[in-house]
Design a protein that fits this description.
It is a single chain. This protein has one domain: Glycoside hydrolase/deacetylase (TIM Barrel), CATH 3.20.20. Helix content is 34%, strand content 15%. With 346 residues, the protein is α/β, with parallel strands linked by helices.
Amino acid sequence: MKPSNAQSTLPAFLITIDTEGDNIWASPRQIETQNAKFLPRFQELCELYGLKPTYLTNYEMAVSDSYIEFASDCLHRKTAEIGMHLHAWNSPPEKALTEDDYRFLPYLIEYPKELVEQKIDYLTKLLEDTFNTKMTSHRAGRWAFDEHYAQTLAKHGYKVDCSVTPGVSWRKNMGDPKQQGGTDYRDFPDHPYFLDLNNIGQAGNSNLLELPVSILPKYSPFISRCRKAVNQLKGRQKDDATIWLRPNGKNLKQMKKVLDEAIRKNRPYVEFILHSSEFMPGGSPTFKTNESIEALYRDLTQLFEYTRRHFIGLTLTEFAEQFHRQVKQDDTDGELASFHPYNAQT
């Protein structure tokens, strides 16, 4: 189906929710999933504005009765997508990697390759059996991604990944203290591209589409260079400050800047990110009280209202399928910075 009018070819507003247990930042020994009860309110707000979240779901949520009921209803009404999100330390089959995995929260990419494949296979099948739907979208736990991980996702038929955080390095964020830390994305693309499965930092000819998170440098290139020079003189190693499309209770203006920049640069999408537990008071370090949750929803309402005339709501896989069709039609090299999705309902 081709676009029928100008409104149908707006950029996509992609909502990605890392759907996981309560306050994982606190490294709980017993992981609860009470935050599942707070998701319907967010879903209702999304539907009010024609937005379709992708709930990237990890193991403890995949076995939570409350979440299963919620997610199944969304799938039945075709108002959201369920994807996969894997926290290696508690996702079966479990095998200790460090002296205390619930303290160190090791990255999946730090495990032996055979165990990586087993964990991906187990959670993929669990989600597919639970929700009776093929898993096609994914985000790596703690943003840790590499070539073997990508190759394994491709073997399981995943269509889209959204683990890349362009301009951001996670090297200083340790998992297994004996290894090298998280993935460094500072030189990765900030636009959609089909992954080279032998080098995930560049475009290739695989069918696995990478949709990097929407992240902007906080400062101009000139200011960034000055800040870097000053830090080098003082012997400090600091990454460039960034702006994410991620609410923190005091950044509505910055989030709108991400949207404005996407429109100005004719980008095909923006990608919003939050965790399911951040919708629950006390479920995260950011939103600890009922008042902070109400403030979050005020910001979300204003942000979503801001998208109404400038973006269309799609799930990750809906976007990926349209992108893939356009690439095949145009016989391009896998990068379409000027691509814009159309609303399949038009």
